[in-house]
Amino acid sequence: NSYLSTIPEGPPDAILGIAESFKSCTDPNKVNVCVGAYRDSSGKPWILPSVRKAEERMLKDDTVNKEYAPIAGDGRYVELALRFAYGNEMDLGSVAGVQSLSGTGACRIGGHFFARFAPKPKGLDRLPIYIPNPTWGNHIQIFKECGLDVQRYRYYDSKTNALDYDGLIADLKEAPDGSVILLHSCAHNPTGCDPTLQQWKDISDLIKEKSHHVFFDSAYQGFASGDAEADAAALRLFVKEGHNIVLAQSFAKNFGLYGERTGTLSVVCNTPEERSAVMSQLKLIIRPMYSSPPIHGSSIVKTVLEDEELTKEYYANCEEMADRIGSMRRRLVEVLKEVGSTHDWSHVTSQIGMFAFTGMSSDMCDELTSKYSIFLTRDGRISLAGLNEGNIEYVAKAIHDVTD
Ligand code: PMP
């Protein structure tokens, strides 16, 4: 009898498990509003035209090859990606940046970096990281795997369907000085609620007072407003305020590069010397995990951002996605009213980003799936990208039925 026979079946992933069930469902009316991936108005995955053009150029370029990237990835790609996040005014000379396996991989590198180098608050044997409640589910596992002590701060008030700003402030105050605070830089997943710029400023002041460390997770830059520059406002404010932020950047959503696993992890240091030391340590974290990153997605982003025309086209593509999602958000609320729902759904239109955090209970979500083959996470989150004119009435009627 081998040890293999003693291994218990693990639970399916909360999000990707639902995607599997969707795939195997045979109901012709089935709708997938679970996974946060963009779909066009006919429900199909979309390759951005600017991305397609970049790939065509890469195919014709005979200097392109399949050699290994360095441990830290393609330096030119990293530089352009950081420029995209931090803006044109930023001096990148003191920023340590590496390529990562999309946002997930960036969170993992950043988590290990904090666990290895940031001092533990007095009397604690593990460094606490405070993540919002709720948050992207994978954060919990990722930071546990890094050896951090995962704690939560209040983020959302389900009674008002809005940001629980007072709860957030109270919990960050309560956290031991020198904790890591994970912030979603825009379009918070799953709630779609972000602090206002003034609130961000006050959060920044409090974090300074408490000597906390800031870990920004940026998975939706450009997706929130359609304007990647505007969506970077909070992140850039914190840098301006002098925080040595760590940033996990993903190009999965805003470039539609999901499966290409394209991202960066960066640390804003104070001097080029610090940058150099931090770079060397980031490489030591990466090498035993996967040696070096994949090169196709990063070459695409580099090709787009190196070229003025393609960049312009890219910005228009990103805006098109954000606009379609925004219009589905408004349509959903409109159609809910049309089919007879008298609930107040105004929170759905005040939220931003890819998701509607509807406030439906897990029982209601289960009913949507069992009765209507509408697949969503059990926290009531709906990916608006999964909606289109062909299915929105069906979904609205079903939501009305289960919430009535
Ligand atoms: N952070 C947040 C908040 C996310 O929503 C996601 C994707 N769902 C990620 C990080 C990571 O995604 P990826 O690894 O595909 O870039």
Automatic annotation (TrEMBL):
- Its EC number is 2.6.1.1
Give the Aminotransferase class I/classII large domain ranges: 29-399
Q: Quick check: keyword Transferase in the entry?
A: yes
Pfam families per the record? Aminotran_1_2 (PF00155)
Instruction: Fetch the InterPro entries from UniProt.
Output: Aminotransferase_I/II_large, Asp_trans, PyrdxlP-dep_Trfase, PyrdxlP-dep_Trfase_major, PyrdxlP-dep_Trfase_small
State if Signal is listed as a keyword.
Answer: yes
| Matches recorded under SUPFAM superfamilies | PLP-dependent transferases
Question: What would be an example GO MF term here?
Answer: L-aspartate:2-oxoglutarate aminotransferase activity
Identify this protein by name: aspartate transaminase
Organism encoding this protein: Cyclotella atomus
